[in-house]
Amino acid sequence: YTIHNITIGYKLSLHKIKITPQIRIENLFDAYYESTQYYPMPLRNCLASVMFNFKQASIHIFISTPVKALS
User: Fold this and answer.
1) pLDDT tens-digit readout, 4-47
2) What DSSP state is assigned to residue 41?
3) Rounded Cα gap, residues 27 and 50, in angstroms
4) How many CB atoms lie within 10 A of CB 54?
């Protein structure tokens, strides 16, 4: 089996803060596969994240949801 993932993001700066929003889609073509027999792996899913980089600290915010729930 072949699994395709895609990540799309953008980097921008606001004063001294660097902001990086990203969207990642895993198993893009919704392939069914089992890495161990009788234990199916997740179907297509989506992860959205926003990373904030300050002068000395970073904050990461992740939101994950199945794509099926979005339709």
Assistant:
1) 999 999 999 988 888 889 999 999 998 999 989 999 998 888 88
2) P
3) 21
4) 10
